[in-house]
């Protein structure tokens, strides 16, 4: 098939593009940046999903059967702000959906996140794809993923002929992963909140790539949680990584973060304690409909620890 990928030079896209080529697809790789290592046989185009006209022009010129929409801001840079993140995540998705409708794209595969469920003390454990999405407004990424999924739901009513595959991805680990979670684990000790297990569901980066590749050609549609089976607590993470934990009461951490944010010492505010304490635990058993098996969470953590062990 002819497949257009947005965010093709990003962390996932740079592995998804060669994978799709290996599967025999004709790939148009688009991104705001040029690829560091262009894949032979791939058409590379500069594309900013914030520009509705350009998105429509590129999709109309190439006429892909499938769009893999990966363009998103997962780990904001120092110069980022919430308005720009919304322009990319929410407005960008709107522009891609409009182009799909205008030019008869058959299927769209969207990288969403388990964050769309939100970080809430009363989240069901585990969460399935049927549970309500309650992405917290205080967290830009979580809120934006919820808005994107609400937009996708509306588009299903408006354009039922457009097949949708939505991937709600858990915490990604891998050899070269650098995100907000892994940065929490880089010091000599890992922070834990007293009375909270803070369970994490993990998925290996190459497993995510396999899921995206399957989502392009599988007849299955709908939402899919993407995570390894099971979950691990902060204590288990620390033990596996050979680190100690520092356990603090939630009110104390909230106060410290409030002062640090006000003084410009940290980008994280007091709301971050919710993010740390109430992690969404995903049931990813529905992935079997895509014909993909992913590495269990505990095995992902062990593999990650082994990659970082001094040689």
Automatic annotation (TrEMBL):
Signal peptide segment: none
Domain of life of the source: Bacteria
InterPro entries the record matches: Epimerase_deHydtase, Lipid_A_modif_metabolic_enz, NAD(P)-bd_dom_sf
A Pfam short name: Epimerase
Record domain NAD-dependent epimerase/dehydratase: where: 3-184
Name this protein carries in UniProt: NAD-dependent epimerase/dehydratase family protein
Native species: Ornithinimicrobium cryptoxanthini
């Amino acid at each position: 098939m002819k497949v257009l990928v947005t965010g093709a030079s990003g962390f996932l896209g740079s592995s998804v593009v060669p994978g799709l080529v290996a599967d025999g697809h004709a790939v148009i790789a688009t991104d705001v940046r040029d690829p560091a290592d262009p894949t032979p046989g791939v058409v590379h185009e500069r594309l900013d999903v914030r520009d509705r006209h350009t998105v429509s022009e590129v999709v109309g010129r190439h006429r892909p059967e499938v769009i893999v929409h990966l363009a998103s801001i997962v780990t904001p840079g120092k110069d980022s702000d919430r308005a720009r993140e919304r322009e990319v995540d929410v407005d960008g998705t709107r522009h891609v959906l409009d182009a799909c409708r205008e030019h008869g794209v058959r299927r769209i595969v969207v990288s969403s996140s388990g964050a769309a469920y939100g970080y809430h003390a009363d989240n069901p454990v585990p969460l399935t794809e049927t549970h309500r999405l309650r992405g917290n407004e205080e967290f830009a990424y979580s809120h934006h993923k919820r808005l994107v999924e609400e937009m996708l739901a509306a588009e299903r009513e408006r354009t039922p002929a457009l097949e949708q595959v939505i991937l709600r991805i858990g915490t990604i680990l891998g050899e070269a992963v650098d995100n907000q979670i892994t940065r929490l684990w880089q010091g000599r000790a890992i922070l834990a909140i007293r009375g909270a297990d803070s369970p994490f569901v993990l998925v290996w980066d190459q497993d995510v790539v396999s899921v995206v590749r399957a989502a392009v050609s599988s007849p299955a549609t709908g939402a899919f949680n993407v995570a390894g089976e099971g979950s691990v607590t902060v204590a288990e993470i620390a033990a596996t990584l050979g680190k100690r934990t520092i356990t603090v009461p939630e009110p104390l951490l909230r106060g410290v973060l409030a002062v640090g944010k006000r003084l410009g010492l940290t980008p994280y505010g007091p709301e971050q304690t919710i993010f740390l304490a109430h992690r969404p635990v995903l049931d990813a058993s529905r992935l079997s409909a895509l014909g993909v098996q992913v590495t269990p969470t505990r095995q992902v953590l062990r593999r990650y620890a082994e990659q970082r062990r001094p040689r």
